[in-house]
Amino acid sequence: MKEIDYLAPSSLGEAYAALSNGKTSAFLAGGTDIIVQLREGRKQVDQLIDVKHIPELISYAWTGDGGLEIGASVPFAEIYEDDEIVRRLPAVIDCATLVGGIQIQSRACFGGNIGNSGPAADTVPALIALGATLTLGSADGTRDLPLEDFFTGPGQNVLGPGELIIKVNIPPQPANSGSFFHRFIPRNEMDIAVVNVGARIDLDADGERIEGARISVGAVAPTPLYVAAAGDALAGETPTEDTFARAADIAAEAATPITDMRGSIAQRVHLTRVLTYRALNRALERAREA
Amino acid sequence: MTTTEKPDYKVIGTRPIRPDGVEKVTGKALYGADIHLPDLVHGAVLRSPHAHARIVSIDTSAAEAMPGVLAVVTHNDLPVVSNKMMDMGEGISTASDMSKNVMAADKALYRGHAIAGVAATNVHDALTAIEAIKVEYEVLPPVLNVQDAMREDAPLLDESRHTKTPAGELSDNASNVAAHNRFEGGDLEAAYAEADIVVEREFDTKMVHQGYIEPHNGTANWNSDGTLTVWTSTQGAFAVRSALSELLQLPVSRVRVIPMEIGGGFGGKIGLYLEPVAALLSRKCGRPVQLTMDRTDVFQATGPTSGGHMKGKLAVKDGKITAAEVSLAFEAGAFPGSPVMAGAMCMLSPYEVENFKVDAYDVVVNKPKVAAYRAPGAPNAAFCVEQLIDEVARETGTDPLQFRLNNSASEGSRMITGVAHPRIGHEETVEAAASSDHYQSPIEGPNRGRGVASGFWFNAGMQSSVIASVNPDGTVNLIEGSTDIGGTRASLAMQLAETLGIEYDSIRPTVADTDAVGHNDVTGGSRTTYASGQAVYEAGLDVQQQLVARAAQLWECEAEDIEYADGGLRHTSDSEKSMTFAEIAGKQMETGGPIQGRGTVMARTPGAAYGVHVVDVEVDPDTGKVDILRYTIAQDVGTAVHPAYVEGQMQGGVVQGIGWALNEEYYYGEDGRMENASFLDYRMPTSLDLPMIDTIIVEVPNPGHPFGVRGVGEVPIVPPLAAIANAVHDATGHRFTELPISPRQVVEELHNLQ
């Protein structure tokens, strides 16, 4: 690894200034991806901008209407140790407890996982299923966008020069809804998803009929996918093996994976179906418990 | 269980704390990269981006002119060396091939092949400088597996290489097959004609890496007087010394190798990679130079073990194996020297087989030169043979352990080499596995299955030297030269304590450098506790003899009148006269000066090891994931000197075998690039992927060792690949003949995916 500058802005203003000093930059939040990429020569930049000293990025809070806003640099461990989040948003915990291992989770954060923009990012399908949006900021102001619109390709996203991720916004969840995040890895820990799936099911007041559903699949396309058609197919249906299998088929049809060291095309399409079906069942259980 | 009355040992069989334990758990132990010398500079190595390419030219001038750069070396800086065979202990290579592997000569033969080295005032400058070295390559098509390499029209790694045939001649045509060996006996065709059952299958395995935590490193200081000192992480300081002497054309006595603590080796830290480059850089710049690898370098450029292709055929008549025909072709990597012969000689050794034909092909491919890995060659070969055994046992309706017992080799039966087995413990080990709580418990539930397999490893003997210095307070310093990768400081100190009849804590063992102790072959071949243990025993007897002479002097009697027993001396006819070890140790000065015991051996009776494994798995039919539910290993260890470390070796071998069976593989792109050269995507098992590995120590003492020791470290990796494949077959009805039995392979097979 070659020599590199390190900056640690303590406000958004300082961060924006650092981003416009003419050097190539990467953000250092938990550092669990970027340090490895720099060391292995997969990425080369002039400077690292540490975003763990900016107040907006290192705090999280519930909104008045029951949503949750998580600063981009808040470590996963801080989130999953919060009992209220554990109770109210279990799918967030599903993914936060799966990224890397315990040491990684003490440093790594949503902003980093999203900003790294890997197609297999473990937090993304869960957050898309929950309907999350991102707040991006630059010297010109802030903008919000749905998480599924953030990614443009492997390692690529819509962040402009001078722009950074400030926070993730999880909207209030409907009553009688349940969500689940599920991934498949060959080992039981310390691995990258072959396929991962986030699913949310919203039941009607009686808990008999599905009012709506959101399904997101990762690692099967250049970006994480929000498969709206799979969720739409469930709207108005009763939750049965058949309806879930149909939604799983739609999700699998949306998958356009590659063959690489982590899995084959056939395996990934197959797993998309299996995991979607399993995730829907677990989301349903949670919706009924809700 | 133990087969004979064990002598009443005082120290052997106990579980004391290892002498190097506190330093290691407190982080104070010094590993290779911990060496900081005055004026030390760091370096970097330029590596080939191509799997197969002719090197047209190398221009180092721009790099040499860069700020901070002190020296640049290429293959041209290495002396020309002969084709002399270099026996490194586990694995043989020619000096010329070793030299070309250290830095590529006319061709780069694998991606990651070292091309040049740079020393600079700091590592950042060195890394910048290697990018300024201009190499012109003529890229050639790579050969990436044995089948492709053996085709007549295959691109040749070396146009001058011809196959050494079973007759000992060279083939007419140049070939990527470096050697073809054959073992034959009996009458195969007659056996097939009479057989009740004949099974035949083909098997494929991939390259896998030893996966030690500590990357390779080498620090060298070439003094202006022409002496060379090297600090390195190695399994064999003396092997490094002799190889450096040969490669750099220096007298052996001018090379001093200081073995640092070693963060895992498993066979992979015997060869040389960085040490000669650091030495040449140091000679050029006049300062000590340190080189280290990162994990990508370790995967791409250091010792995996072979993958390969195998074809096996077994015939059975009346429940007995009557014929075995096996063809093994193993990848050697860029230079000859795969462990195919070891695999060939091991795979049938648990059994009596009268009619056989075994062909072994050593095949070069554009991948890193293989290094030894824990029972090199035997696990792959057992993957083939032990699955065929499972299949014929099923077809005959015999319990697979009973089938193995019915066909077991025992003392006097001949291996395919013609050599008769001495006292061995395969039968006892099968019986121990069969009577285990595990095997006696039923396996229930859907998608679950049980598999078993046997494994054999020769174990090695070879040379060891030790010195035992008696201190005036009755303690003893044990100077040995076997680097400690598996608790051998403890196991050797225990054997000296047992020999002398004194406390384990009275012995302080130290692993010395090559200037400070006589020759010791590598810590490999599971030889150290056995062979260095024998040297320690000899040294203990030497000390005893000298103490008796001193006592004879004090008591004014004949040495024959004195007996050494229970950690002291006594006069055989005068009960008034006795001395403890500490008492006589305290009288060294007045009786003639310091007492030093010496032990040197060329050990030739290692005593082979057998292991029998039982494993239960559960297969998720929808995802293809195999979970290991329960695992029991029974192994004949001769005598367990330190049972905790014996169990650790057994468990460690099994865990590496589980990784090999289920997920580990070198995953190559068509361009010959290993795409998973990191611990993230080269999937070794984590603690969460494993159950407790239950161990059953079987003790059939080795008659060739004073305490009955057999090597224990290697055989535990031999059966797991086959045992797990047999268990997955039991669970799914599908026989997996290709490794790894990864979720991808399982789900594709079970669901017929394309």
Residues in helix, % of chain B: 25-40%
Largest sheet of chain B: 7 strands, mixed
- CATH classification, class level of the largest domain in chain A: Alpha Beta
Number-wise, the strands of chain B total 32
What is the makeup of the main sheet of chain A?
A: 5 strands, antiparallel
End-to-end CA span of chain B: 50 Å
**C-alpha termini separation of chain A:** 50 Å
Give the helix/strand class of chain A: alpha+beta
Query: Low-confidence segments of chain B, ≥5 residues, pLDDT <50?
Result: none
CATH architecture of the largest domain in chain A: 2-Layer Sandwich
- Shape estimate of chain B: globular
CATH topology name of one domain in chain B, in short, is: Aldehyde Oxidoreductase, domain 4
Strand order of the largest sheet of chain A: 4-5-10-6-7
Largest interface: A-B, 24 and 30 residues
Beta-strand residue percentage of chain B:
25-35%
Provide mean pLDDT of chain A, rounded.
96
Q: How confident overall, as mean pLDDT of chain B?
A: 97
Spell the H/E element sequence of chain A.
EHEHEEEHHHHHHEEEEEEEEEHHH
> And the CATH topology of the largest domain in chain A?
Uridine Diphospho-n-acetylenolpyruvylglucosamine Reductase, domain 3
Rg of chain A (CA only): 19 Å
| Shape field of chain A | globular
